[in-house]
């Protein structure tokens, strides 16, 4: 393979007066912003759905199950296209016009990625709650808590500790899944990757750099949540790897 390596091309000036490394940094910023905002949406909505699916109210369970079944079984890119192209045509005309002309693209990307990930988090929150002893719920009710207060003060804090490793995986995956948002116009890392290849044909250099960027983002999130897991572990309930027998 007769390939010409040229790492210095990152410092060449582009058509817009910036340098190629500026495009990488811009894409990295958008990837981080969209991913973290989507993760916040997914954690909030996923927690609500997880609670709904463990309540005694069958209609809430049904709503939660329907949401998870739909959003887990439709590819992310199809969901983004639905929000971007189809939904504006289904809502009232003035709202649809606003969505197409004034609503920032990154809002659609955050909503689409957040709703998709929420379905996965809902499964994990449900599993965490169901893994708890029924006695915890009864103890909360005996203390005078309402059903919702037992979730807030008793069941959810314990469930989050149990499913934190699974939530860590979702938090790492959301950075990788954010690459799909280029399809709706987000100038994130993968978009810049494709654009630089078209401009320079330096495929190997830019592929290595972008791969390292995604690795660093996911690895940092992994280490942050591993620290949170270690700090919030309940002694005797979740056994750590150090000192375990």
From TrEMBL:
Domain of life, source organism: Bacteria
Keywords: Cell membrane, Membrane, Transmembrane, Transmembrane helix, Transport
Topology term for the membrane: Multi-pass membrane protein
Localisation: Cell inner membrane; Cell membrane
CDD domains in the record: TM_PBP2
Secretion signal, residue range per the UniProt entry: none
ABC transmembrane type-1 domain ranges (all copies): 28-225
Family membership noted in the UniProt record: Belongs to the binding-protein-dependent transport system permease family. HisMQ subfamily.
NCBIfam families: HEQRo_perm_3TM (TIGR01726)
Protein name: Amino acid ABC transporter membrane protein 1, PAAT family
Organism: Aromatoleum tolulyticum
